[in-house]
Amino acid sequence: MKKYVKIGLALLLLSALFVGCAPAEEEVNPNGYTLVIGVDGILDVEVDTPTQSGGVRHADNTPFRRGELVWLEQLDELSSLRGVSVKALDEEGRVVYHFSVAEDATREEIQELLVGSWLIPPAEKV
User: Fold this and answer.
1) Order of strands across the sheet with 119-120?
2) What is the pLDDT of residues 34-51, one digit of tens each?
3) Region 9-29 average pLDDT
4) Contact present, 33 and 121 (Cβ < 8 Å)
5) Which of 9, 85, 89, 108 is 20 to 30 A (C-alpha) from 70?
């Protein structure tokens, strides 16, 4: 009986160690736009707005895979896309995808640009 208790405890300990090691299910950002990576081999995503700029890269410098989701927190509504430039670059720094909106774009123009883009609107605003 002690043998089974020890085995059970060992399994319980191992399962506790591996909690959270499985990749989380990706989901669309409820508070901002989500970029869906459209091709394999994207290393960097650059986001420039009229007030800030930044980028996203995997911590281990591995490229993104097609279908991965990147949350763009600073882009939280349709009007926040005015003056925005989103670029996806490959490992050689070549622009593979580019999405941009003029600062004076109308709501209708922005909605047209979003059709066929890699961007998904905030989940709660769909």
Assistant:
1) 69-72, 33-36, 119-120
2) 999 999 999 999 999 999
3) 45
4) yes
5) 108
